[in-house]
From TrEMBL, chains A, B:
Source organism, top-level taxon: Bacteria
Name of the molecule in the record: Phosphate--AMP phosphotransferase
Domain Polyphosphate kinase-2-related: 30-223, 253-471
One Pfam family this sequence matches: PPK2
Gene3D superfamilies: P-loop containing nucleotide triphosphate hydrolases (3.40.50.300)
Source organism (scientific name): Acinetobacter defluvii
A GO molecular-function descriptor: transferase activity
Amino acid sequence: MQKNESSCELVDADQLSVALIEAQYALKNTRGQKNAKSLVILVSGIELAGKGEAVKQLREWVDPRYLRVKADPPYMMQKDRAFWQPYARYIPAEGQILVMFGNWYSDLLSTALHVSAPMDDTLFDAYVAQMNAFEQDLKNNHVDVIKVWFDLSWKSLQKRLDKMDAEDQRWHKLHGLDWRNKKQYDNVQKLRQRFTDDWLIIDCEDEEIRDQEFAQYILKNLKHLPNYVTQVKEKWQQAEIPNELLKPSTEEMDEDEYKAELKKLTKKVAEAMRFDERKVIITFEGMDAAGKGGAIKRIVKKLDPREYGIYTIAAPEKYELARPYLWRFWTKLLEDEKISIFDRTWYGRVLVERIEGFASPVEWQRAYDEINRFEKDLTDNQYVIVKFWLAISKDEQEARFKAREETPHKRFKITEDDWRNRSHWDDYLKAAADMLQRTHTFYAPWHVISTNDKYTARIEILKAILKQLKAD
Amino acid sequence: MQKNESSCELVDADQLSVALIEAQYALKNTRGQKNAKSLVILVSGIELAGKGEAVKQLREWVDPRYLRVKADPPYMMQKDRAFWQPYARYIPAEGQILVMFGNWYSDLLSTALHVSAPMDDTLFDAYVAQMNAFEQDLKNNHVDVIKVWFDLSWKSLQKRLDKMDAEDQRWHKLHGLDWRNKKQYDNVQKLRQRFTDDWLIIDCEDEEIRDQEFAQYILKNLKHLPNYVTQVKEKWQQAEIPNELLKPSTEEMDEDEYKAELKKLTKKVAEAMRFDERKVIITFEGMDAAGKGGAIKRIVKKLDPREYGIYTIAAPEKYELARPYLWRFWTKLLEDEKISIFDRTWYGRVLVERIEGFASPVEWQRAYDEINRFEKDLTDNQYVIVKFWLAISKDEQEARFKAREETPHKRFKITEDDWRNRSHWDDYLKAAADMLQRTHTFYAPWHVISTNDKYTARIEILKAILKQLKAD
């Protein structure tokens, strides 16, 4: 089982320190480079095994300024956030190293050990599978993850407890478990073996070996950070462009009818979102001038301004580029708004980034699954995601561009970028077709809305929200 | 008293909307420009006066994507954080507008109205003075602040309460106060008049006037954002460079003595920091190669890695430059680490930014007071700040630079920037002298440590920490 268990040869501590610092700086110097990486080190283990001491020793050997340490009390697994949400904002930028004492596995262990009824193995394993998938997504996006379990035999644990004074022992019991209870100890060991297959297991009997084995493992990993970006093997299967994108409907709505409907629907939508027990995410993608801003205005019309947030997504900044592309969305969702509206989204990865070449083929081709997992994690955890693609015909876009240029107070809405994007019209249609095909899921379906007629579009959008919230 | 009370002329709503959107985009387009600004709008007022409705109407008139709204439950004024700390991270970047329902004044009001004993007027006024000073600092750093009080007469308030159903009334009572109680109403009015002198007071009797007066006031302010960066009038009084900077001591310490002392002091320092009831901030400034990294290593030697964070401050990123220069430190202190160590600090404003011209004379000359206020706010609120200037002689620096270039595993520590900074040696001495003279306060004193001898320096640093924590 414990295939990573290794006997460790002690090396000269000064040399180890120099090698670690060099590796640290080498990593730091990848910043902004093509091979840029960061490293997350998850540490967990048996009480008193000494993970704190091992990290302390590591931080003495390295340059402590470039080894960040996070320690959170456990977050119990619960149904209103994905397991990675409490940690997402700390995912390090390129060149950085982060040690996480509190992490999703320790949360899972805590939860499994503390829930009144024991956690079902199937559920436990499902969580582990999700965690592995999340880590693989991190790795694919330049954040390497290594995991270390600090192990201690029952006998050694009891000996160490014997040596402590009563006050300290009580404190250790407060950490959540009675480490004098053999059944509990065995249970921890049994549970952690369900996920530690790909961990380094350190036997912490000997403190010097413990510290060196930990540091050497990190050194080894720093020196050989794997490159997960491989060649694309298969030819890309381009989806057929659906007719609703090629020739968006031009059905028109009468103004009086629109006004009456709008009045009714804005109220209904506001209430549906407000009283839905889930947090609501509404996202917009589509060609420029397709009417995203106008649609958003109508969605929020009957909401109190304190009930919602709008996120307008532009090109990422440098500090955002230094992290996985989903990071800037993870952190926005942490604001905990009841209703979040995104004017452009994470789909930029498979739209503009694909078309402009900011993401390599292997990166954007992998992104569909990553995005599906991201949305699945959210919808599994008390979010509902309503996704819109606003479809417009090329002629109608041109008409709107020209109108904007001619209207003084709309001139600011049109830029050279808009004309440039227009020149890639067919590429965007292709990219949108692929996106719709690959990310239209039962838990986060797409709504394609023709916006050639603004009135019809706005009404359709409001109706689609009601329908997805099952409030129609 | 209410000098801003105005009668408002109604204008055409569509024209008002266009003007607001244009002003909004004009602000947005200042991003990255010399005249860049952002705007914070604080709103408070009497229950049922309709501040929520007015902001809702405003958000309908403007482009809602570029008007952010924050609403927090009140933070009671308490002694473990400065009043601005809960809000600091939301201070908007250049080009952005933020409406704050929850804000430092509503917190102060809530606190004054809810504490078991009424808040002393002197204390209340002292808070208000601090808030005004903080806002002036924001304004000086390109964040304009406008404040609007939504007022309602006792009679109208009672009428509006009469019209509500019982369930809603209970909810309004839950908002904290019994608005049926005339004494409480009068008390709110009496208290808020202690701070609303420079607020716009809107009489919310008429809803249309209320919404227009609010929107027109914002429009007026957006159109005429004041420029607080004025000419420097007086000649700068350069401080004399103290001898300890010109000729740092070269006293040496014997290795055995050092080792014995170090062992004793690292333990003592760890315990002093751990058991101090305040949060501890330790900051380092000084010439390159003065030994900041080495000193930090010794300070944290006996700490658990989970007890402290180290912040290495490099050149600010674009998103940081878009905010007041203290913003990136405000946000770091929110991490709530018990012990925070800064390798370079906010003093960059009056050191590198002064010398390289990144801050204008009026900006860096104003920064001393701003920094003093910042540190005062922290030390008034359960922080202790231990500030070090590490002084080294020019010869010793050169020797260390050369040694670094010759030692393989230290070569990464030396860059061209280091040599360039060295060429500004005298400028840095002058800037340091001014800084020491103007920011050496009783609540956050400087410790100037000669680091020509590393052993002596490290021991002195540890002793200085003990002394300031009164643990020596």
